[in-house]
Amino acid sequence: MLVLLCHDETQNLKLSNKMKNQDFTTTILVEQTPEEVFSAINNVRGWWSESVEGTTDKPDGEFLYYYKDVHISKMKIVELVPYKRIVWLVLENHFNFTKDKTEWNGNRIVFDISEKEHKTELLFTHVGLVPEYECYNVCHDAWTSYIQGSLKDLITTGKGKPNAKEGGLNAELIEKWKLPEK
């Protein structure tokens, strides 16, 4: 069976597919300088989790993020352009609440910093976090809270609201993914 679509139908189909594959993004606008925003983002323990282990502020740095027995991720900094852009690659990921425990594997976490109307804009994009993911609603709410709340507070007041340091949970995965001492 051959189906012919007119130009408008083809454009609508492309737009529909593009909207379905929408990566998660959120934006904040602050009075602080791009340098201050860049510094705050790299202080991952100050806004995401006190349990982060490893290097969070150097090119090719790797770090572990974990929260109780719910989530553990191993990230690598694959792009670090001072005061403009930071990109993390998710090397490994484990959720305890999804069928596919590795939904984030290969995703990129992108922080784009720019000046806008005498302020600094931070555009956060989780490339690959799309509505089709089982974790999407939980991750959408978590990232929104971390970026719009904790990271913004760290930037504007010097004090974020990261997850408190945890111990003893996810011990097997944390040990397996542990970063070598340098």
Radius of gyration: 18 Å
Q: Identify the overall geometry.
A: globular
Distance between the termini: 62 Å
Tell me how many strands there are.
7
Question: Please, what is the average pLDDT?
Answer: 85
User: Which consecutive residue ranges, at least 5 long each, have pLDDT under 50?
Assistant: 1-7, 9-19
Determine the fraction of residues in helical runs and give it as a percent range.
Answer: 25-40%
Q: Which range does the strand content fall in?
A: 25-35%
Structural class: alpha+beta
The biggest beta sheet, please? 7 strands, antiparallel
Number of helices: 5
Topology pattern, helix = H, strand = E:
HEHHEEEEEEHH
**Strand order of the biggest β-sheet:** 1-7-6-5-4-3-2
Describe the structure.
- With 182 residues, the chain is an alpha+beta fold.
- It is 31% helix and 30% strand.
- It has helices spanning 7-20, 34-42, 44-47, 136-157, 171-177; strands spanning 24-30, 53-54, 62-67, 71-81, 85-95, 108-116, 119-127.
